Amino acid sequence: MNFPYGLVLHPTSGTLYIADFYNHRVMSYAPGSLSGTLVFGGRGAGTSNEQLYSPIGLHMDLLTNNLVVANYGVHNIVQFTLGQSNWTIAAGNANGSAGVSSIGLNRPMEATFDSMNNMYVADRDNNRIQFYQIGQLNGTTIAGMTGVNDSTATKLSWPRSVRLDSQLNLYVADSNNHRIQKFLRY
User: Are 25 and 40 in contact (CB under 8 A)?
Assistant: First the structure.
C-alpha cells in the first residue's frame, strides 16, 4: 500500500475495500486475511476506463453490486461492477479535466447516496457539495458556493466527507474550517 485512504466494508461478506491512493488501485481483503487482492486499477495513473488516478473515497452500492470511487486525480466519480475490468462515469469529466460547471468537479473526495440512489459528492476544490439525481451527469450545488472559500454558515472550505442521516439531513466535514456542518434536508 502507498497512502491507503478510503475504506468501505461490504456489509454481508465482510470484505474490506481500500483505495490505495498512490498505487492508483482498489484492493480488497477478505475477513481474517493479511494479503489483499487487486480489485481494480493498478495499471498506472491514467484516464482510460481501466485505470484510476489517485482513488480516495469509496462507496459500496449493494443494489447494483457497484463500487463507486472518487477518482481524485482526474476530477471525477467512477463506478464499476465488481468483477468487471472497466468503469463508467458517474460524475465529472471522463477526460480528467477539472471543472466548475454543473458537470465538472475539482478534486472530489467522496460520494454517498440516499435511499433513492441519488448521489451527493464532496467537491473539495470547488468548496461545494454537488447533488446528482439518479442517472444524471448534471449536478446541482446544494451546499457551499463554487469557487468561494469561506467560513460563514452557508459556505465551505475544502469539504472532505459527506453523510446523510435517516431524515436526509446532510453532514459535511468542512476541513479547512475545522468543523462539521449540518444542512437540513434538500
Answer: yes
Q: How far apart are CA 120 and CA 129, in angstroms?
A: 7
Q: Give the whole-angstrom CA distance, residue 117 versus residue 149.
A: 29
Are the C-beta atoms of residues 48 and 31 closer than 8 Å to each other? no
DSSP bridge partners of 11: none
pLDDT at 134: 94
**CA–CA separation, 183 vs 37, rounded Å?**
38
Q: Report how far residue 144's alpha carbon sits from residue 156's, in angstroms, rounded to the nearest whole number.
A: 5
The reported pLDDT for the residue numbered 64 is 85
Furthest-apart CA pair in the chain: how many Å?
A: 46
186 has a pLDDT exceeding 80: no
Nearest to 6 by CA among 19, 16, 23: 19
C-alpha 182: how far from its chain's center? 19
Euclidean distance between CA atoms 70 and 54, whole angstroms: 9
Going by their DSSP bridges, the two strands 4-9 and 16-20 should be labelled as antiparallel
C-alpha distances (whole Å) from 119 to each of 24, 30, 180 are 23, 27, 20
Q: Give me the residue label for grid cell 479547512.
A: 176
